[in-house]
Amino acid sequence: VNGERLREILPLLRPRSAEPTLFSQTVWYLFLSGLATLVILYLIRWFRLRRRRLREFEAAAHNAGLSAPQVALLYRIAHKRRMQSPPRLLSSPHVFDRQVGQYASAIAGRNRRHPELAKIGRIRHTLGFDELDPEQSLTSTRQIDRGQTVMVWVNEKPDGSDAFLPWLVLEHDEGTLTLAPVLRAGRVPEKQLRAGDELSARFWQEGDTEYRFTTGVIGKADSPHAVDVEHATVKRMQHRDFFRIDVNFPADFLVVTSREELSGSADDVHVDAAISLLDQSESDTIRVEPSEPAGDVNAEDGAPEAATDGVDRLAGATRVSGRVVNLSAGGLAVEVPVEGPLAGEETAWIVDLAFEGPFPLAGLACVPLSTEAAMGGRRIKMIFEELPILVEKEIVRGVYEHQLQVASGRGRSGSQSDVVLDDDKPRRS
């Protein structure tokens, strides 16, 4: 009996799909309709925003002198690069090179004769980004002027006479940079560059400072001895990266035994040094004389003489005569016939205001970093303190011209020249 009753109840216990009610249907309809409306409104807003940006970009590009095909190409590149503000391509050479330049490098890696490379080059020229103003720092080898001389190292391993070689920028487009060695008539380059070689180069930018870049050789160019290299990012040199060159010229210093005694006077002599450079005409150049191997320090016997001229606050300083044996835009090393407190690291050394040597050092304040024994006295390594920007640029230019003279054989032979990084400058954290 119980079994028969269970059979009658079992059909009632089976799960059944409940039919949706009118209320639930209405809720789902409203939800889906609202979701679809939000998606449609978002797409409409997105298309309107994109159309407005395109119109603004086209107007700005046409005002900059670009044609319709050039505008379309540039906007397509901006879209591929997912730029939030495409008009910046028209106003900033650095943004242009970072976005369009990287796009050009990508297609040049696949095909260096890609037709878009020439189109990008014409766009760069129309916008005036192929030649930057002197006050703008460089970011790419595409911005280097044709005719610029660069000092080239191969594989970053300077060795003897091949430590650095002057090369000339013959040509550049969006795909490659063409370099050729600076040679005398009838000469051939001492170092032949081949495809796949890695090289580093430094150059001095007129009115700016020194730059460096590392790149790879693609192959030979059409001009004799010239090679095509890949474009690369250029790095602006900092104090600790400036090159130090071996030199040999006399200099007098006013030395105070405590830097506190220099309070206020350093600013005066720095201003005098900067003003003296401003007084020079544009035709004036730094006199870079051939260097000689460092020899004995020539100094008078007896104690150094006391200073009788210069800044009043340096009237109690001691005059020391020595020879500068190496130099960079970060500092110098001098050999002097002094011992004791004058060679200590707590002293301050002011280059004589009457200095007329091959570099603009008159009035510069130097702070010793270290000393070591030298023939007839001590060799003191020093850094410049609060060096004015104008003076720094002139020293960089003088060092660069000195390197060119050595490399071309007008100075010391390359085998006698040691070019090293200026590691005397304290590294900033």
Molecular structure report:
This protein has 429 residues and is α+β, with helices and mostly antiparallel strands. It folds into three domains: 23-131, no CATH class; 141-237, Roll (Pnp Oxidase, Chain A), CATH 2.30.110; 244-296 and 307-421, predicted glycosyltransferase like domains (Thrombin, subunit H). Helices cover 32% and strands 23% of the residues. It has eight helices and 14 strands. The chain has helices spanning 2-13, 22-63, 68-80, 88-91, 93-110, 115-127, 265-278, 389-408; strands at residues 149-154, 165-172, 176-181, 198-204, 210-220, 227-230, 235-236, 243-256, 318-327, 331-336, 348-351, 365-374, 377-384, 420-421. The strands form two sheets. A six-stranded antiparallel beta barrel has the order 1-2-3-6-5-4. It has a six-stranded antiparallel β-barrel with strand order 8-9-10-13-12-11. Strand 9 (318-327) and strand 10 form a beta hairpin. Helix 2 crosses helix 3 and helix 5 packs antiparallel against helix 6 (115-127).
